[in-house]
Model the fold of this input.
Amino acid sequence: MAPWRSAQLAALVVAATGLPGCAVSESTGSGGGEVGALPVADLLELEPNDDEAQELGPIELDFVLGGAMAACGSNGSFEGTDRDRFSFSLLEPALMELRLEVWRGDLDLRLSDPDGDVLFEGTQPGVDGEQVSFSIGAGSSYGVELRCWMGDQPSWRLVFSELSP
Done:
């Protein structure tokens, strides 16, 4: 192969990794991983968590959970898509924000109270993610569900932060 052809091919491969539909591997360091401009995760999700929620237990705020979606929905349906479910609690009551940040996809966020009632369902179209602020009591277990509407194995981070009263 001519040297200029090798250089063209290498440039094409490098350029393609940033295009939608092209796989990009997630680098994982000692803190979890970082994709694009997403924060470094303190903990990565464990599959399977589509039906049974991954129990995070009591967490400390300023905690970042990370993961990726294997399959996304379309045409008005989430059937057959990857859903990631989690449950968490706090040791102390707090006013907190739950923020979903997404890289290369459109994910929806659902927050449920200890009785399973939906407190928030973020379904805004686009790749800006979702966020909700709420008060949480100590020891109460809340549920979070992420659903992928659009994307090619998008990566995500859930940021649990404390807000000032």
Q: What stands out?
A: The helical segments are 3-16. Residues 1-34 have pLDDT under 50 and may be disordered. The first helix runs from residue 3 to 16.
